[in-house]
Amino acid sequence: MKLEVFANAAEVASRAADILEGRIKTKPDIVLGLPTGSTPVGMYRELQRRCSAGQLSFEQVRTFNLDEYYPVSPDNECSYRYFMDTNLFCGIDIKRENTHVPAGNAPDIYEECLRYDAAIEQAGGIDLQVLGVGRNGHIGFNEPDSRLASGTHLTGLTEDTVQANARFFSSADEVPRQAVTMGLGGIMKARSILLLCTGKEKHRALHKLLEGEISTDWPVTMLNMHPDVTVLCDRDAYEKLYLGIDVGGMSIKYGVVNQSGMIYRFEETTDRSSAEQLLEQMTNTCRRITKQYTIAAVGISMPGRIALDGTVNRQSNLPFKGVDVRGYIEREVGVPTTLENDANAAAWGEYMASGEKGDMLMLTLGTGIGSGIVINGRIYRGSHGHAGEFGHMITHSGGRECGCGQRGCFEKYASVAVLIDSAQQAAAENPDSILAGYMGDKANGRSFFEAVAQGCPVAEKVLDTYITELKTGIESIKSIFDPKLVVIGGGISEQKDIFFARLSEACRGVDLRQAVLGNDAGMIGAADLAMRRCSDG
Ligand code: F6R
Questions:
Q1: Where are the alpha helices (DSSP H) in 293-377?
Q2: CATH value of 2-238 in 3.30.240.20, 2.40.100.10, 3.10.580.10, 3.40.50.1360
Q3: So which residues are the catalytic ones?
Q4: What is the per-residue pLDDT for 536?
């Protein structure tokens, strides 16, 4: 099998037209097998263009279409005969009597099937069969089944195909439930086959074929038994896909990505009732996703201390302490899986998004302070996998008590939770201030910044203290690592003028950047790490 991968569907169409043009010029009375559907439309347009330009003639060409709905009359706008007339035949110099489509209104449809196969025989058989493929792997209307018919036959459409084809009708109810199609035996008799495969929806079907499997569950895989098949596909259909999962205390985010970006995203509420429940939830969702997409590797991002061997040593928001999450998902989903601390994964995602090559640190300001370090193009983990816990760097010796057992940790002075506490305290001490009007029970970072925007001096003072604390930490980190850039993540970094600009001003000499991936950084970073580890072997 020959495989050619192109940047997009337009390039596939142009290459397909080149192949057809070459074949028609070599054998002007060639017998072509043709498909309908969205995939060949670009190629048909290109053939029409070349024909109008006098570059190509279909005068002696004979065509046989793969299939037709049943029952349907040829002049029905939804019929495949009508499709071919309007998408190809009307713009080329082919003789109408040389074009053949099964008659979907034949009084005896079984008779029609026999007649159609005989007509192909009589024409000398198909020289070049052009095919599209359904997302469930069907070719023609040969749907996944335990039995596959050989000759042209009447068949039922699967619900998946009805839904996929509903776009050509006013509703799915209008799609005929039956069709006449050339059988796989007929398709395989063609002397050569050209398969066009474009779009991410075809990814799984294409990869089933490329993996070399032969199964009636994926009719397209029968082409693995044909001696002369050329596959033209675009990157969306071809590129390997990776699944990034970001497991948070509130929600789990899943993203399917390829080299060009994210092609599918899903989010669900975290079931934290037990490790078993949560693993089952993740496994079920992963299985659903891997049914739709062929995933080369999974990357999980999760809070907690994750040792170099993947053991979760410390975790507060999820029930995974001591659980082998990576091994479990890998076993149950059957795809190589990696696990990374969420702050590291987010740092990696932002590092990749920044396009910078130099060393980078990321601080995520939230309830605590998460952080990740990228040195020499790799996440720096330290000797035990716990490096980069800047939130627990001591900035106030003997200071406030921290949940980690130490006193005076950076996050006890510079997290957003601390900022809100300080604002609430200042509001209580200054009940007549503008700030007091904003800091009710449900107040959050946004309420605080609204008070600052109103010019409240009390709020200004709280912000000044907060920025000084952050500056202390950031400058200490800078003296140790001298990074090229420091990325600030967390919702607070979106307060561009009121917060981020001031922090940048305070930390002159440090290239501070706002995070760009928002809440998806961990998921995207995890998927990218999975991709890299997969290609590193
Ligand atoms: C239609 C045919 C089908 C299509 C397939 C893909 O004649 O043979 O097998 O090739 O359903 O359809 P599109 O190209 O619309 O995705």
A1: 325-333, 342-354
A2: 3.40.50.1360
A3: 67, 136, 138, 143
A4: 63
